[in-house]
Structure formats: C-alpha cells, structure tokens
C-alpha cells in the first residue's frame, strides 16, 4: 500500500509542479495566444476525473487504444536513442494498465495530466505579481541571459508560490482514488501494484466493513497531512520574503 | 525570456528573426503539450460519434463514416432490416439515455450541488458576519477553530461521517450526499476575510435605520459579497459535481440517487464490448455542462478553482 502511494506521489509531485511552472513561464512570456493555452491546460482540472479515467482506459487499451496506435504509427522512424520505442515496435507495446510494471506509473501519469494545469494557474498568478522593475534592475547588474534572470529574480520571487503549490500537490496526490477505483474496482490492480491509500481505506472500511483497519489507515493519512502542513508553515515563516 | 535574445542581437532584422524563432519554439512546445492534454477529450468525443464496428477496427478518423449500421438490439425486438438501420451518433446518444436513467443522474447532480451550495451560503454568511463584525466572548477561539478545521482534508473524516450517517439510517438518501458538506469552514473563512474589508460605518448606518442583525446580513452584507460569493459558488459546484469518493461511499445500490459520476461508473460496470460508444456519449454529456460554463466564464472559473488552493 505504501509502496504504491509513495511511487505515485513521487511521480506526480515533481512532474506536475515542474510542468506547471514550465507551462506558466512559457505562457507568461508569450505575446499572443497565452489565454488559449491556459484554457486548454486547465480543461482537465474542470472535467470529472472519473469520466476522464474511463476515457483514458479506452485510449490505453493494448491493441485498439489510441496511445498504442499512435506509437505504432511512428514505428520505423524512432530515433536510435529511444530504445524503448524500437523495442515496443518489435515486441509489441506495453499493456499499460494491466501490466504490473507499468500500471502505477500510468496512473501517476494521469494524475500529472489532471493536476498540472492547476499548478500552472497558481504560478501564472505568481508571475504576474513580480514587478517588472526587478528585471530591469537585474539586467543593469549584468544578468542578461534568460536563465540568469530566472535564477536571480523569478525563482526567488516565486518562493512562496512554490511552497504552497508543492504542499497542495502532495496532499492532492495522496488522495488519488477516482482513477484507481475506475480502473481496478477489485483489489488494486495487477499484483496489488496500484493499491493506494485512499483505495485501501475504501476497500477495508466500506466494502469489507473492517472499520478498524480503515480507521488506522486514515490516521496514518492524517498524520502525513499534518506533518506536511507543519513543514509548510515552518518554511513559510522561516523564509525571507521579498514581496 | 524572449527579450533577452532581443537585446543581445546585433541588427534589427536579425533580432526580429531570432525573436520569431524563440517564439516559434515556445509555440511548438506548447502545442505538443496541448495535444497530449487534449488527447482524451479527442478520444471521448470521437468514440461517441462512431459505430461499434469502427471502434473495434479503429477506423473512420475523428468523425467516423457516419454510415448507418444495423442495430442488433432492434433486430432482436423484431424490427426489420430497413427500420433498424441507425446513424451511429444518434444511436450512441440515444442509448446513453435509454440504457441508464441519465437524465435522472443529471437531475440528481443539479439537486445535490445546488442544495449544498445554498445551505453552505445560509450557514456561512451569518457565521462569517459574526466572526468579522460582532464582538462576543470567545470569538477568537471560534475563529481559531475554523482555521484548524481548514487543515483537515475531507477524506480524513469520511469514515466517522459514514458511521454517523449509517447509524442514523441516512445512507442511500439525498441527506447523506448533502449534509456532510453543508458547513463549509472554507466558505466561512473566505466570507469572513471579505467582510473584514466592508466598512463598519455601513453596518452602523443600517443599525441606525433599525435593521435587525439578520436583515443586515442578507440585505447589506450579501450584496457587497457577490464577487466573493461567485468565486465560492464556482469552487463549490465544480467540486461537488465532479466528486466521486463521497457518493461512492454513501450511495450503495439505489440507482435513483446516483450522481452523474456514479452513474457513469455503473454504466462502465455493465458495459460489454459493444457499449463503448454510448458510454463515451454519456461521458460527454456529464463533462459538458462544466466545460461549457468554464469556456464562457474562464476568468471567474480560474479564480474560483484556485481559491480551493487556500484549503
């Protein structure tokens, strides 16, 4: 149970924070069409996750699913470096959700897909609140490259946003339930590899009526959330704020 | 970051050119991302338009051929080949309604989300008013309690709530879907922060005119709070329309109480191979209301949803 939960959290948190930040930076630096991309990237946040989980299940079907069909369509053109793709062309692409080695990562990917737009919007709000004058000042002081300006101005100024985004992403990814329940209504996936915490609570307490076990897992979950919140508080108070 | 390249470029024309390449690369990256993000939406809409045979063989492109096909069920019911030919889109969307009481699910969704929101407002506004503008013994303690409750995720108290409702015999009822959400500490907190900015003079003037405290809440404070209330409405409605965890726990068999996500899940459970099309059609129907509302009022939606970040 903990293995599955932590694997999922370990993928979802860094990727959805990094993609959220990356998308926000790109969109913020664009002159036109920024709003269009914001809208598109925010769509998964709005759509009912259970519906999208069912759709993903179809897209990930081994032979007729769109994902494997697309991968197959690029067979023969795969660059030398991408061994994985070439191997897939030769021996068939993974079964994704019913493959023990891929299942939890696939579920985590859907978590990233669903959550990064939310982080992007928070980062966009953070970016618009950075005063332009700071960039001019940095340039005067010799920070001319884009990376330098990001390292010296943008990143420190986004500090509070980042603490906040990371905390809520961790809490959200601990709560993954809809996708797991939709894909594996019984037993938590191939070899129990996707048996995440929320599903365990649901299965033990509600389906099997073992309230004690359910409550015990809940207490562990609450413990994690409380520790995280304390760390966040501590970071927020310890950090020097530039705003 | 694009103007960094602009400032180091030697000539104006070259600067123009390099500016454009940087911009183009950004667009390429963003478009690739957008394609991955939109992939399941593409699958969903496309599958809801295709005939079963096209789905199985994965042919027909986005719209499918839209050629009428023979509906087996209609044949079983004694139809003739001529009367049983049906257009795939029509077939998918009509059987979404025919096979499951989808309209009932949608109605349940509306009833539940609306009642939750209304009761949340009825509770949160007076409470926030008291916390922001009235002086009474223990006010700070109550507010501290509100802040503490903000930290507790709903999943952590799901089991005790479930046991409570089960012992009251309330599972499998609208009450089970609505009651746990009626007191929104987040709503109280949000409204309290907003009311703090309303000048005291306004309230004093209303008191001078002989308004009761409740009159002040509903006739003076409510109109000033409309923007905050809109954001909260969007937050609340999106969260509860899409919620799956809680309905899954408290509604265990009674189909007439299913919310849209539960109904879709049930449909999924019954689906054999031939039902993909109708299922995707119902997924489209369930997802569409919020997406359309979002596209119409993007800015408000993004504000409302990001509010939940404060939680």
What does this structure look like?
The complex is a heterodimer of chains A (243) and B (311). Helix content of chain A is 73%, strand content 0%. Chain A has helices at residues 2-29, 34-46, 49-59, 66-73, 83-91, 103-128, 132-140, 146-157, 159-174, 178-183, 197-207, 211-238. Chain A contains 12 helices and no strands. By secondary structure, chain B is an all-alpha fold. Helix content of chain B is 72%, strand content 1%. Chain B is built from 17 helices and 2 strands. Chain B has helices at residues 2-8, 12-47, 52-57, 72-76, 88-99, 102-133, 139-150, 158-167, 174-178, 185-196, 200-208, 213-224, 226-242, 245-250, 260-270, 276-296, 298-307, and strands spanning 69-70, 85-86. Chain B has a two-stranded antiparallel ribbon with strand order 1-2. The longest helix of chain B has 36 residues, at 12-47. Mean pLDDT of chain B is 81; it is low at 1-14. Chains A and B meet through helix 1, helix 2, helix 3, helix 4 and helix 6 of A and helix 1, helix 2, helix 3, helix 8 and helix 13 of B.
């Amino acid at each position: 149970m903990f293995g599955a939960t932590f694997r999922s959290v370990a993928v979802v948190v860094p990727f959805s924070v990094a993609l959220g930040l990356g998308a926000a930076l790109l969109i913020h630096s664009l002159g036109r069409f920024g709003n269009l991309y914001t809208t598109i990237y925010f769509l998964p946040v709005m759509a009912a996750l259970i519906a999208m989980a069912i759709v993903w299940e179809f897209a990930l079907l081994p032979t007729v699913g769109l994902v494997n069909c697309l991968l197959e369509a690029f067979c023969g053109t795969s660059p030398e470096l991408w061994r994985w793709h070439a191997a897939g062309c030769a021996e068939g692409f993974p079964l994704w959700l019913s493959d023990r080695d891929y299942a939890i990562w696939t579920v985590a990917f859907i978590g990233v897909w669903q959550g990064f737009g939310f982080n992007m919007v928070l980062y966009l709000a953070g970016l618009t609140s950075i005063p332009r004058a700071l960039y001019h000042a940095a340039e005067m002081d010799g920070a001319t490259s884009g990376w330098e300006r990001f390292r010296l101005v943008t990143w420190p100024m986004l500090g509070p946003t980042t603490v906040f985004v990371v905390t809520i992403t961790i809490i959200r990814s601990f709560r993954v339930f809809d996708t797991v329940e939709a894909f594996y209504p019984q037993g938590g996936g191939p070899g129990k590899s996707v048996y995440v915490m929320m599903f365990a609570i649901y299965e033990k307490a509600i389906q099997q009526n073992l309230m004690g076990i359910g409550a015990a897992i809940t207490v562990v979950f609450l413990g994690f959330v409380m520790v995280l919140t304390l760390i966040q508080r501590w970071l927020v108070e310890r950090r020097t704020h530039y705003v | 970051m694009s103007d960094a390249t602009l400032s180091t470029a030697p000539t104006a024309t070259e600067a123009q050119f390099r500016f454009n390449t940087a911009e183009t690369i950004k667009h390429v990256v963003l478009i690739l991302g957008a394609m991955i993000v939109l992939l399941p939406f593409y699958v969903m809409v496309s599958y809801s338009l295709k005939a079963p045979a096209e789905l199985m063989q994965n042919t027909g492109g986005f719209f499918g051929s839209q050629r009428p096909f023979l509906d087996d069920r209609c044949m079983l019911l004694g139809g003739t080949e001529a009367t049983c030919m049906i257009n795939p889109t029509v077939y998918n969307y009509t059987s979404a309604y025919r096979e499951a009481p989808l309209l009932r699910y949608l109605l349940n969704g509306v009833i539940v989300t609306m009642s939750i929101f209304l009761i949340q407002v009825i509770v949160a506004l007076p409470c926030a008013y008291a916390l922001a503008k009235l002086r009474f013994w223990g006010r700070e303690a109550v507010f501290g309690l509100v802040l503490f409750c903000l930290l507790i995720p709903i999943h952590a108290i799901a089991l005790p709530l479930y046991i409570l409702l089960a012992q009251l015999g309330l599972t499998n009822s609208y009450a089970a879907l609505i009651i746990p959400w009626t007191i929104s500490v987040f709503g109280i907190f949000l409204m309290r922060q907003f009311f703090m900015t309303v000048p005291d003079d306004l309230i004093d003037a209303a008191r001078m005119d002989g308004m009761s405290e409740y009159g002040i809440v509903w006739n003076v404070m409510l109109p000033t709070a409309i923007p905050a209330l809109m954001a909260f409405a969007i937050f609340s409605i999106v969260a509860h329309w899409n919620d799956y965890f809680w309905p899954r726990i408290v509604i265990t068999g009674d189909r007439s109480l299913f919310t849209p996500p539960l109904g879709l899940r049930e449909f999924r459970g019954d689906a054999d191979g031939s039902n993909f099309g109708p299922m995707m059609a119902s997924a489209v129907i369930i997802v569409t209301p919020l997406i359309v509302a979002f596209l119409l009022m993007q800015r408000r939606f993004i504000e409302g949803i990001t509010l939940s970040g404060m939680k």
